[in-house]
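dude i think i finally got it to work??
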Amino acid sequence: MKYLFFDIDGTLVGESKKVTKKTREAIQLAKANGHHVFLCTGRAPTSINEDVKSVGFEGIISSAGGFVQVGDTYIYENFINQYILAEVMLLFTNKKILFSLESKDALYQTPGVLEFFQKQMHERIPEGNLELARFLEERRKEEIRLPISKFDILTTPITKLCFISPDKFAFLDCVKYLSEFFHIVTFSKPEDSFINGEIILKNCTKGDGMERIIHHIGGTMEDTIAYGDSLNDYQMIETANIGVVSVLSPDKLKSIANDFFEDPDNDGIAKHLEKIGII
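look at this
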């Protein structure tokens, strides 16, 4: 019996933004064969769409470890200290860095994200930057994306921040202030004119989320297998007994992987589950 953890963007879904039929069936068969299947994503709870949920996962680690669910029950929630959050918001605002605050029920975005999206409509999104594609797409979903003017720091706890900095150097100036409290994950490439990514509390990563689920259900980490593709999966891949990453992953992630999977749109996950005998 194994405990399988799957990232979404770039892992379960590729550029099609859909879980393929074979991958869906493979995960369901793994579950039928007695294995346990979980999501482990950087997405906020409100950003996990029904196409993914309907696969039938037994639990969800969301916001890169900020929320941990088993079934419909949240067994763990972690939020940024309000004073630290206020300082980060002020820092980003002063540096003209666009950002999104992730709560359990909504995402709050700053002015300028819309304009950035419209500009990107006329430019090709850098190949392979699925996290940016998701960030830009979801700003159109009013039910989960709200203007920052509706955010109340006193009543709405926040677990994670995503950012887009049109000026790369403006964000790099912030790193020395952020690194004490946060893991800083970037998804853009060095040659891009901008920088985008997310900041995640150091005590609250995808790897920590995995350990919390395993402890809660009485499993063992020796039986864990994790699938991911980007640097916000680093702690998850490092923590799992077997870490499997995309053939397109950054070299830093590949360096700690045990194995690799193909393009999600080419049934990469299904093929790997079959390769290791899960199905």
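The two ends are 12 Å apart (CA to CA).
im so relieved honestly
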